Amino acid sequence: MTEEEDQPRVHGPRDALPEHEVRSALLALLDEAGTVTATQAAARLGYSSGLCSFHLRQLARYGRIEEAPRGGGGRGGARPWRLRTAPEAAEHEEPEGFGELARGLEDESYQRWLASRDAAPEEWRRDEAFSEVVYLTPEEMTAVAEAVRSALEPYRSREADSGARPVGARPVAVVSRVFPLLPGAG
């Protein structure tokens, strides 16, 4: 990684970085703990340190978190992260290839959920996965996507404001893909 690629890049609107189970859990952990390294986050959240490291870097690139001062001085070692104290608003373009990677991680998270669902507390053992094929115009397709975003809007502030979360609330992945089925594909 070059020096330039390693620097945090502040990006725009808070919904510019797609919601993701791991990122939500990391933000909640940072809100609670103040600073964490990828290794500490992995131990607390039950994910791999590589997965936590990737999502911590993505959160930094989008201006949600920043590197915290390292204790003990010197280079190398664990990289601690903290929530940004004053996020800046700027326009952004999604990094090349990020959408494909995010979808892969969403799929991986869902497969992990399916494999471990029986170990979850009883009230969390179900999910609301569904799939529908409907016939829409391009305008209607856009309206459906906007309706999903609008339905989630009342809950978005809970990510940054842990005091707004009801007792028992946990990070929940909501994945929506609205796309046309092209003739002759598949």
Describe this structure in words.
The protein has helices spanning 3-6, 21-33, 38-45, 49-61, 98-116, 138-152, 157-160, and strands at residues 35-36, 65-67, 81-83. With 186 residues, it is mainly α. The chain has one domain. The chain has a three-stranded antiparallel sheet. It holds the Pfam family HTH_20. It comes from Streptomyces albiaxialis. InterPro entries: WH-like_DNA-bd_sf, WH_DNA-bd_sf.
Keywords:
single chain, disordered N terminus, mainly alpha, 41% helix, three-stranded antiparallel β-sheet, 7 helices, 186 residues
* Strand arrangement across the biggest beta sheet: 1-3-2
Q: What composes the largest sheet?
A: 3 strands, antiparallel
In the residues, how many domains can be counted?
A: 1
Number of discrete helical segments: 7
Global outline? globular
Helix fraction bin: 40-55%
State Rg: 18 Å
Parts with pLDDT < 50 across at least 5 consecutive residues: 1-15, 87-93
By DSSP, the count of extended strands is 3
Give me the strand/helix succession: HHEHHEEHHH
Task: Give the amount of beta strand, in percent.
Answer: under 5%
Q: What gap, in angstroms, lies between the N and C termini? A: 38 Å
Content-based structural category: mainly alpha
Mean pLDDT figure? 78
Layout of helices and strands:
Elements: H1 3-6, H2 21-33, E1 35-36, H3 38-45, H4 49-61, E2 65-67, E3 81-83, H5 98-116, H6 138-152, H7 157-160
Antiparallel strand pairs: 1-3, 2-3
Helix pairs in contact: 3-4
State the gist of this model:
Helices cover 41% and strands 4% of the residues.
